[in-house]
């Protein structure tokens, strides 16, 4: 297992290298001149030239490429074109808020989603199923932007219970994580239900019931474990997406996260920030995939890695 | 009278006030101002974002400033004289002013601040605002002489711009050209305290402020909140005392609240469509006139701007110095069709219309224009350009002849508050892209001459006359369809006073105060 883990970790390096080369060329191919965007509409050509050389954008592309990669290997991702601060600081400041928000959203979404999913599967085509699936479909269809605004109007403006923006106390987490988790909970519910319905028809379930086991044990011990594999895969995927930062939720709740940073960076052609963020997102996905693979082994001991 | 009261009684009443918990002087006065964008730097010489300078004005001051109506008034300068040829300006400086770090404000500080931006090696984004300065000389500790390379009429206006701040020379020496952006030290009413990039810029009261009895609040927190509706919500919950800009749709709801004051104030932001006059069919003045006739500006202001705009009265909007008011082009689609027929396009033509912005308002505006033009047979494809595309396709187009821009919806506000910067970068021949923003590729020798002459003039009446002629000529040549002049919409809590949105979209908060 450890051997497998290390092998996968090593395999990560070439992937990241390829990603970073591709990203470098993609962002430089985007139309738009960062120097002009920084200098603004009032700037004349002379000022523009000053800004361009300040940003190192006056050098030929191959030279920029070499500089960028030598710096990366030294652990230096450069400075943001927009704020002139080190990219690592820019990202580090925003990473924790995004991570915490992602975790809180995932926790409630998974608990809630799986409960609904299991209940729906067990009481298939009866009222708990219909209620649960109605909720799930609404969760998927209701746009996060509208949900966020609605929650804010009700709980902050109307009732005055919760703050609108910021990330300082636990109270600040309630509305954004509800908004962010709604769609995930809905997806989880539908996935769990589908997976559970399949498992409930398996022979071993019939056997378990035939040998007189309590229905609760049949569901929670025998079925859950087996139904969990696709659900965990989905969970990993969703987690990866949320870690990328939700642009909409971060905008509505003024959340200081990476999603907004990425949007700003793309709009301003902030090359170093875009490159570092994409690299980080790739790394996150690879790591999550790895964890998910390892979890398979834990959930179902018949899956073995060598 | 007060001193005649027995001392014991004064103390007793003071104690009583304390016991009742009504000691107003002890209550901290902290104000939160919510703005629409994040300041990218705290160095006023290295930004082109108006809102960023709104923040830096809390701790930095210049020799002059614009008041809330964009009139120039002296701040760190007391008075000035200018030589007859308009080249030498001599400033008498205010005495007894201190920087936040205790350094004295004097002529040396002015020299150091301006020489910093003038040094190309410092690579500052506002270089071209100052590059007409030839030299800055200290005459005496409180007299400074600035010599220009060429006469430059709007020089005082450019010094009143928020970026022309005087920085503490000691702080500049200590932090250096780059890090001063993170450690600003000025003479303003507030001392920089903390900048958490994603969250806020916090400033606190400067006890050694030169203007007596100011500032009247203990601290200001500038909070960038990117989403319009969220800013509105923060006002309603009391988490912010001020919010700008605001979504037009929320006006009614905010006005209904008894905790808030909603203000609609004039702005100098003019929206227009420029025509690429080098290209068919826009090289024909009849076509340009036809489009001007074809657009109902009243309706545009209502539809796209929810009424928070009015039809543009001329090329330079009112509020800008030397603006010349002219009747908006009348709405007359029949006349437009007739002109198109005369120009040889009886069935109209096809073209493209780009917008310089992707905001909802801009999207609505170009959709509306598309429909209006369709009424007279002109079919336009519309596209809202995001900033990268805009700089690439419009501002950086290397060759005027092959530039892809045709009709271009854009906007402008003169950063110096003066006609020069509302005309020269947009309509003079020297301003064709990629140099500046003459997206109409308009070129009229007379207009160029008026603008150049006015720039060198130091006489008010002469300038006014020259700019009037220039604006009239441009209006006649119709390189643009002037559309609307926007209005600023902002709201404050009832307890807040002394905060205004200025016509150029900046914020004037030097006399900020809160009631109990």
General description of the model:
The complex is a heterodimer of chains A (306) and B (516). Chain A has 306 residues and is mainly alpha-helical. Chain A has two domains: 1-74, no CATH class; 92-299, MetI-like (MetI-like fold, Orthogonal Bundle). Chain A is 77% helix and 0% strand. Chain A has helices spanning 2-29, 34-39, 45-54, 61-73, 87-122, 127-141, 144-158, 170-200, 203-210, 215-243, 247-252, 258-267, 271-299. In chain A, helix 8 packs across helix 10. The termini of chain A are close together. By secondary structure, chain B is α+β, with helices and mostly antiparallel strands. Chain B contains 16 helices and 21 strands. Chain B has helices at residues 7-19, 50-56, 107-118, 127-130, 155-160, 169-179, 228-237, 251-256, 285-294, 297-305, 333-342, 360-375, 387-395, 420-427, 445-456, 460-477, and strands spanning 30-35, 64-66, 72-74, 77-82, 88-93, 133-140, 143-148, 190-196, 200-205, 219-224, 242-244, 260-275, 309-311, 350-355, 379-384, 407-412, 480-493, 496-497, 500-501, 507-508, 513-514. In chain B, the strands form five sheets. In chain B, strands 1, 8, 9, 10, 11, 12, 13, 14, 15, 16 and 17 form an eleven-stranded mixed beta sheet that branches. In chain B, strand 2 (64-66) and strand 3 form a beta hairpin. The longest helix of chain B is centred in the C-terminal third of the chain and has 18 residues, at 460-477. Classes of the chains: A mainly alpha (306), B alpha+beta (516). The interface between A and B is large, with 49 and 50 residues. Chain A: Keywords: Cell inner membrane, Cell membrane, Membrane, Transmembrane, Transmembrane helix, Transport. Chain A: Pfam families: BPD_transp_1, BPD_transp_1_N.
């Amino acid at each position: 297992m450890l051997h497998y883990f290390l092998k996968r970790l090593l395999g990560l390096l070439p992937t990241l290298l390829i990603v970073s080369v591709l990203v470098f060329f993609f962002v430089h191919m985007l139309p738009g001149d960062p120097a002009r965007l920084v200098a603004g509409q009032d700037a004349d050509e002379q000022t523009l030239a000053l800004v361009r050389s300040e940003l190192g954008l006056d050098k030929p592309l191959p030279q920029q490429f070499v500089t960028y990669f030598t710096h990366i290997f030294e652990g230096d991702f450069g400075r943001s074109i927009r704020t002139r601060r080190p990219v690592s600081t820019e990202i580090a400041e925003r990473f924790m808020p995004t991570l915490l928000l992602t975790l809180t959203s995932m926790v409630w979404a998974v608990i809630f989603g799986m409960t609904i999913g299991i209940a729906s599967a067990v009481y298939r085509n009866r009222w708990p199923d219909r209620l649960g699936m109605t909720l799930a479909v609404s969760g998927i269809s209701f746009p996060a932007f509208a949900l966020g605004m609605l929650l804010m109007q009700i709980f902050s403006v109307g009732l005055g219970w919760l703050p609108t923006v910021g990330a300082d106390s636990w109270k600040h987490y309630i509305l954004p994580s509800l908004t962010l988790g709604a769609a995930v909970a809905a997806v989880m519910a539908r996935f769990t239900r589908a997976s559970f319905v399949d498992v409930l028809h398996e022979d071993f379930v019939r056997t378990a019931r035939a040998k007189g086991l309590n229905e609760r044990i049949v569901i929670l011990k025998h079925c859950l474990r087996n139904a969990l594999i696709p659900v965990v895969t989905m969970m990993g995927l969703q987690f990866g997406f949320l870690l990328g930062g939700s642009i909409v939720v971060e905008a509505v709740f003024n959340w200081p996260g990476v999603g907004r940073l990425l949007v700003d960076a793309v709009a301003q052609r902030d090359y170093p920030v875009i490159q570092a963020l994409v690299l980080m997102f790739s790394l996150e996905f690879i790591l999550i995939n790895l964890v998910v693979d390892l979890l398979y082994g834990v959930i179902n001991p018949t899956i073995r890695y060598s | 009278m007060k001193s005649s009261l027995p001392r014991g009684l004064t103390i007793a009443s003071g104690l009583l006030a304390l016991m009742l918990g009504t000691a107003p002087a002890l209550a901290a006065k902290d104000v939160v101002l919510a703005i629409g964008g994040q300041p990218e730097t705290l160095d006023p010489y290295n930004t082109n974002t108006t809102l960023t300078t709104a923040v830096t004005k809390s701790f930095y001051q210049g020799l002059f400033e614009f008041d809330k109506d964009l009139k120039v008034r002296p701040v760190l300068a007391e008075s000035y004289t200018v030589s007859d040829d308009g080249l030498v300006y001599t400033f008498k400086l205010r005495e007894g002013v201190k920087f936040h770090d205790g350094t004295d404000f004097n002529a040396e500080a002015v020299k150091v601040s301006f020489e910093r931006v003038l040094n190309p090696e410092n690579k500052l984004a506002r270089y071209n605002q100052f590059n007409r300065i030839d030299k800055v000389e200290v005459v005496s500790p409180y007299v400074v002489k600035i010599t220009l390379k060429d006469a430059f009429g709007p020089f005082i206006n450019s010094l009143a711009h928020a970026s022309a701040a005087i920085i503490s020379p000691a702080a500049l020496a200590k932090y250096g050209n780059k890090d001063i952006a993170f450690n600003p030290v000025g003479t303003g009413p507030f001392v920089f305290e903390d900048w958490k990039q994603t969250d806020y810029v916090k400033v606190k009261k400067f006890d050694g402020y030169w203007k007596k009895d100011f500032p009247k609040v203990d601290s200001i927190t500038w909070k960038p909140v990117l989403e319009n509706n969220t800013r509105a919500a923060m006002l309603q919950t009391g988490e912010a005392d001020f919010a700008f800009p605001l979504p037009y749709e929320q006006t009614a709801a905010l006005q209904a609240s008894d905790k808030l004051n909603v203000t609609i104030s004039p702005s100098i932001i003019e929206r227009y469509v420029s025509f690429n006059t080098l290209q068919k069919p826009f090289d024909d003045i009849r076509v340009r006139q036809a489009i001007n006739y074809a657009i109902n500006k009243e309706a545009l202001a209502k539809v796209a701007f929810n009424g928070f705009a009015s039809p543009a009265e001329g090329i330079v909007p009112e509020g800008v110095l030397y603006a010349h008011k002219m009747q908006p082009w009348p709405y007359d689609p029949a006349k437009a069709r007739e002109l198109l027929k005369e120009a040889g396009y009886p069935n109209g033509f096809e073209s493209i219309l780009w917008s310089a912005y992707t905001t909802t308002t801009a999207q609505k505006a170009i959709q509306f224009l598309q429909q209006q033009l369709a009424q007279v047979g002109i079919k336009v494809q519309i596209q809202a350009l995001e900033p990268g595309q805009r700089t690439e396709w419009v501002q950086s187009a290397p060759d005027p002849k092959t530039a892809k821009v045709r009709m271009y919806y854009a906007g402008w506000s003169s950063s110096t508050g003066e006609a020069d910067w509302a005309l020269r970068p947009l309509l003079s021949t020297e301003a064709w892209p990629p140099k500046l923003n003459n997206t109409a590729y308009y070129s009229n020798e007379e207009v160029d001459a008026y603008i150049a002459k006015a720039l060198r003039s130091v006489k008010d009446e002469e300038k006014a006359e020259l700019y009037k002629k220039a604006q009239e000529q441009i209006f006649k040549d119709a390189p643009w369809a002037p559309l609307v002049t926007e209005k600023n919409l902002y709201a404050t809590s009832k307890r807040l006073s002394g905060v205004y949105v200025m016509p150029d979209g900046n914020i004037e908060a030097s006399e900020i105060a809160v009631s109990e």
